[in-house]
Amino acid sequence: MTKEIDSGAETGFDRLLQFTLPDRHARGRIVRLGPTLEEILAAHPYPPVLKHLLSEALVLTALMGALLKDDGSQLTLQAQADGGIVSLLVCDYRGGELRGYARHDEERLAQLGANPSLQKLFGGGYLAITFDLTLTDQRYQGVVPLEGTSLSQAVERYFAQSEQVPTLIRTGIRAGHGGLIAGGFLVQHLAEGEEGRERLHVRMDQPEWEHVAALAGSLTADELVDADLSLEALIWRLFHEEREVLVLQGDEVARGCRCSIVHFEEVLARFPKEDRNDMRDEHGIIRVDCAFCSREFLIED
């Protein structure tokens, strides 16, 4: 096997790794979140069930966001249910900046026990995945039902239905190193060849994809969260018999809440003056809460 990899230390926490299998017309991303994950989760006193759910969502968001090629483009994952115990879960990724937030009913969640199903958490609802592309100034979105046993399954369904791209996803989450560790792996079959070529047809039973999926399907959750195992070593374990594997370190991942006084002033400036006056308190201040970082911003002009 020929393995090409960029120079530098092997990849551990909070950095994406990209890989391509040219002979199999497949590409993938892998990530392991640690300190960044803990920093995002610390913004709110989430119970363990919500920490686990949001960790999976953040890993998925980072994996999909890493597929974007244009600087400044953004991937947003939003799970929403009408009347669900978890009424809203939203994460986004842009250029290595990752953030996420979940809103839930504390009393109803406490009645569910330790490992509630996805259906019990959301009671139905949908998963929306949105790509905002800076190069073309376009936005496109796919929506799939919140069905199955995990958010990962819903994302796989999105790629199969909305993108028509065979995709395999694995995630793992566990406590360790003073906090949670969350790992994620995504691999896709690119019909008719490598990245950038026109997709002339899609076959979910394409032999090359079946081969890649069989190898990738052996990846375990324990391997994804093993801090002593580099991401390069994981890719080697899976694909060491392939003739060529191209591996490249991607973005460093950091908590990236983009809220600021200037940002909110720009947003509020779009409202008529009468509406802004109605938002003010008795001291003439507009108070803006950021759910992502759990901070309050005081705006006055």
List unreliable stretches of 5+ residues: 193-201
* CATH topology value of the largest domain: Hsp33 domain
Number of helices: 10
- What is the CATH class of the largest domain? Alpha Beta
Helix content: 25-40%
Q: Provide the spatial order of strands within the biggest beta sheet.
A: 1-11-2-3-10-9
Task: Count the beta strands.
Answer: 14
Distance between the termini: 63 Å
For the largest beta-sheet, the strand count, sense and barrel status come to: 6 strands, mixed
Mean pLDDT: 86
Structural classification: alpha+beta
Topology summary:
Blueprint: E1 2-5, E2 15-21, E3 26-33, H1 35-41, H2 48-65, E4 74-80, E5 86-94, E6 97-104, H3 106-110, H4 118-122, E7 126-133, E8 138-145, H5 151-163, E9 167-176, E10 179-189, H6 207-216, H7 221-224, H8 231-239, E11 244-252, E12 254-255, H9 261-268, H10 273-279, E13 286-290, E14 295-299
Overview of this structure, please?
The chain has 2 domains: 2-255, Hsp33 domain, CATH 3.55.30.10; 261-299, no CATH class. It is built from 10 helices and 14 strands. A hairpin with a 5-residue loop joins strand 4 (74-80) and strand 5 (86-94). By secondary structure, it is an alpha+beta fold. Helices cover 29% and strands 34% of the residues. Strands 1-11-2-3-10-9 form a 6-stranded mixed beta sheet, sandwiched between helices. The protein has a 6-stranded mixed beta sheet with strand order 8-7-4-5-6-12, covered by helices on one side. Strands 13-14 form a two-stranded antiparallel ribbon.
